[in-house]
Amino acid sequence: MDKMPKWADVVLIPLISLILAAILSALVILGIGEDPVAAVNMMVSGALGSTYGWGYTLYYATNFMFTGLAVAVAFHARLFNIGGEGQAMLGGLGVAMICLYIPWPHWTMALLAACAASMLFGAVWAAIPAYLQARRGSHIVITTIMFNFIAAALLNYMLVNVMRPDGSMDPASERFPAAVHLPTLHELLAPIGISFSKAAPANVSLLVAVLACVVVWALIWRTRLGYEIRAYGHSESGALYAGISPFKITMVAMLISGALAGLMATNNVMGEAERLVLNSTEGAGFIGIAVALMGRSHPFGVFLAAILFGFLYQGGAELALWTNIPRELIVVIQALVILFTGALDNMVRMPLEKVFLALRKGKA
Amino acid sequence: MTLMKSLMGAAAAMALTAGAALAEPALIFDLGGKFDKSFNEAAFNGAQRWAEETGGSFREIELQSEAQREQALRRFAEAGANPVITMGFAMADPLSAVAADYPDTKFVAVDVTWLDAPNIRQIGFAEHEGSYLVGMMAAMASKSGTVGFVGGMDIPLIRHFGCGYAQGAKAVNPDVKIVANMTGTTPAAWNDPVKGSELTKAQISQGADVVYAAAGGTGVGVLQTAADEGILSIGVDSNQNHLHPGKVLTSMLKRVDVAVYDAMKAGENLETGVFNMGLAEEGVGYALDDNNAALISDEMKAAVDQARQDIIDGKLSVVSYYENDSCPALKF
To the nearest whole number, what is the mean pLDDT of chain B? Predict the structure, then answer.
């Protein structure tokens, strides 16, 4: 039997971790002579106080949902995919090729094609480390992280030498044609009478991300493949005995993971920048690890954790804009949240388990 | 002095509370960060100098992500900041989207020269000309006939630096061997002193005895290793001669600080258009001070100053890497 009820595992532990991180952050802000209450106020009002703030929060959250789901799917098969960053970069390359070289009549078709291309590119990039793991036993953590650097170098080559428009000094592709412009939340919500900030970058790919959450949930808990992935993750020898091929599960889980990471490009490349820039992923692949850890690898948890990290990003940007809190400190605050929710999980879990056991004994 | 400081602080605080009416300038640093010991820090120094001289204050942000580029531009423009000064070529695209929405705000774009908007002051620097001069110095100071170049991230801008440098070195000694390396292909390459140090050691083993670093914060490691190993180095953007006195041959100056200072001083009455800061405008040049005076002989100085004059007069032309995306003196 479990040591504590499920609600404590999914709600209480993350909440306590967050509060601990917040207290420590407040101390750090006090330490540099700023007012933590005012800082929190500014973060909350800047990220959640207006449709403008929500627009940015949801934009970042969309990125993190994709990468968080990517890491979560691999986690279910006990594979640690640190390569979300590189897979998302390659996804961006696929999106850029689809948008630049094919004249699309309407954004809906372009979005479908871009989804397919980004998933394909991301999956291909994950396939090589997956094969090396499945057949050669090269550790997936090492190979995926190395593939991030190869992806960066490839993207750099493509942007500097192939896709850069003549005469431009900026290593970036051309702007995508207007026809592939994805509607922002402003354009989506205006017809139904909700006025949403025009400047905010959140766009229709948010819906793609939510859809991806649902699909991943169905895949993991409602299909035979999902069962096989989870079985393999729990015990490789047990899965082998049940006739599940480790090679197949490693490959399939990583392909799905890579495809999800690649999908992120529909948001940051197609939805926001509308061109491929060198630094388009900006660490979202790594944030995805924290999101998946915090979300307990469950799509709904990933959804919530992604919004939390979106809030931290947008709130941090507001802090950087209007206060003298240096950006390094904002990274410190984000890191504290990651540290407490991810790495120091057991620090909260163990005492809490003891409390619940004691309570149960008291009752019995 | 303390009294003066608190008075100025009070004045700044008042200016802050008065808000938009006073139209503070705003400065947007690129992803490298404010204290990169080179490009962004030069801008900060220029702004700081303006603030100290006038008692004014300015808003600033260090960008953390690509999506923040447009966001910061809009937020500052909406808050009434004027002028809004941006650093780096990557701001060109967001600026072209934002500038038209705020016709009363003046924008300044450092390292951008190709936009078409009436309210942007675009400032380009002729880095290849400055690099040419330090390239000449490198070849003259080199005893082994091999000089090195350590670039930051492998983008056209840095090749532009390296190309000018190689041309200068070849102008002095046609047989000179140029070893060129880039630190990396990710933005982390701007701030990786350890890798800079390794590359420098590798170049030394290939015979280089003068190394030019055009690599932002990575250059700190290049200069350090060069000093430790007893060879000469060349700094970039800011005057870095003081980092290792007597070990840094010179620095290629890119007067970003002057550009920012001038823009802030002009305030809302800023002149817009495209400004090219070359040798003639003293936008670029080489650094000569007490720290490196002993390293630079009179002949070297005479030759470099002659070349400088020739470039200004148009008698000598340095090929820009941008012209046809290739370099006549160096292959990347």
Answer: 88
